[in-house]
Design goal:
single chain, 102 residues, mainly alpha, 5 helices, 53% helix
């Protein structure tokens, strides 16, 4: 058995019902490519989420060809504010004093 499956098994067997989850994950190779299942298990372990549902989610993403979400990007300088608004908390006090909404 590949090392990734052994690591997953070690994590799953610590929880109630983990043996059943492991059997269901192993049975995925009957319906899907073994390398795809192995890769899904490896990615789930990298994510730190050793569960059957996460392995299935990753496997389906691999099969569908959808890329994982892109990492956050830094905003370029062009998107920065040219003139930042001035903080005026007194404005909120004047809004609260008006009784037109109550």
């Amino acid at each position: 058995m590949p090392e990734a499956f052994r690591q997953l098994q070690a994590g799953l067997l610590k929880r109630p019902g983990g043996d059943r989850e492991m059997v269901e994950i192993l049975s995925l190779v009957l319906h899907h490519d073994e390398q795809a299942v192995l890769r899904a298990v490896e990615l789930a372990l990298e994510d730190g989420v050793a569960t059957k549902t996460h392995v299935l989610n990753v496997l389906h993403r691999l099969i569908d060809g959808k890329a994982p979400p892109a990492p956050p990007i830094d905003a370029p300088q062009a998107l920065r504010l040219g003139k930042e608004p001035k903080a005026d908390v007194g404005r909120y006090d004047t809004l609260r004093e008006m009784r037109h909404a109550s």
